[in-house]
Amino acid sequence: MRRAAIGVLALAAAGCAEPPGEPSLVDRLRILAVVAEPPEVAPGESVALDALVVAPPGVAAPELTWSLCAEPVSLQPLAAGECATASAGALVALPGPTIAPPLELAPLLASDETVLPLRVRLHVVSGAESDDWIAQVAVSTRAAPNRNPEILELAVEQDGGAFLLTATTTEPETFEKILADGERVPETELLSVHWLTTLGRFEHEETAPGEADRLLDSDGAATVYAVVWDSRGGYDYASLELAPAASAP
By the 8 A CB rule, do 221 and 164 touch? Predict the structure, then answer.
């Protein structure tokens, strides 16, 4: 159930597919999550990137290309829109799924509460299919940086012809938020679970931790994915194999 580093998973063969555009159905090459561990670091500290990539059965293993969204010469970070549309030559190629925010970013951190978003683009391709994901690493010198949430357990039970799935996670973190007038107030981050499946569809697609979602129209073997993220950019994911209940003799 737990995630593995740069996991490329094959879809279960589906009997009946949902119409194109069903958000919770994974029936093509897709990046479902990229986890930066840790999600917030100081300049020069190392970050490991872990991607959940799902590929259809019978196709070649996807090729993964990582790029730092920064000007190749100045290393000035690019905005999200620039990162998404930039050509590969306009980005800084990374040798693999690790990154250390350059020390040149240190002067941009005006105080110990300044947070600079540094973006990484993952491009995957397999045959004629491709997908992209822009991950974000927070760069700061804060004494209490953000940490990723964790999925502790995926629970499943059958409810008639449907499955009920629930994700138990770590508790959301409370952190100091600085208001415009400089006042520091405690604030608790929000956690959300996104549900995806290789067969059928989820009723809600997104729930709070501990809240059940219903998998509908799944009468065969399926792989279910739960992706949790917090409101400050932390991620985790887990997966579970489901099989239909055996018919009574």
Answer: no
For residue 247, being part of any structural domain is answered with no
What is the number of helices (H) and of strands (E) in the chain? 1, 19
Q: How many domains does the chain have?
A: 1
In a domain, 156, yes or no: yes
Residue 118 lies in a domain: yes
In angstroms, rounded to a whole number, what is the distance separating the alpha carbons of residues 244 and 3? 23
Cα angle: 95, vertex 78, 129; to 5 degrees: 55
The model's pLDDT over 141-162, given as tens digits with 9 standing for 90+, comes to 988 899 999 999 999 998 877 8
Query: Would 144 be classed as within a structural domain?
Result: yes
Q: Which range marks the domain in which residue 144 is found?
A: 7-242
Look at the pTM and tell me if it is higher than 0.70. Answer: yes
| Interacting residues of 40 by C-beta distance below 8 A, sequence separation 6+ | 115, 137, 138, 139, 140, 142, 145, 146, 147, 232, 233
* Averaged confidence pLDDT in the chain: 85
